[in-house]
Model the fold of this input.
Amino acid sequence: MQLRTEVSEIAGWTVVNVYGELDVATAPQLRELLIDLVGDGANRLVLDLDGVDFLDSTGLGTIIGALKRARTHGGELRLVCAQSRITRLFEITGLDKAVPLLPTLDAAVAGG
Done:
């Protein structure tokens, strides 16, 4: 399955909606998009993962890379995900402690 992304701006946040499978085959596409966005000054990022069907370790690595890149540029990264099979991966790996996992887009763009 292919990866599809949509980028928008909401309340000062750059929101990237991600759809499909985020894996070894598709993660480079998302990585390049995120590098370009941060390079263009978008250091407050929200990744909406509710459209993700599958996430592997390469996808997790891409998300952590985006977190580091945003922080290096004085920003932050928030994740939207209400799917228990995806949030469980963050909990198992302890990454839920490093990046906020929020249940809705409204919650992700609020308070900041």
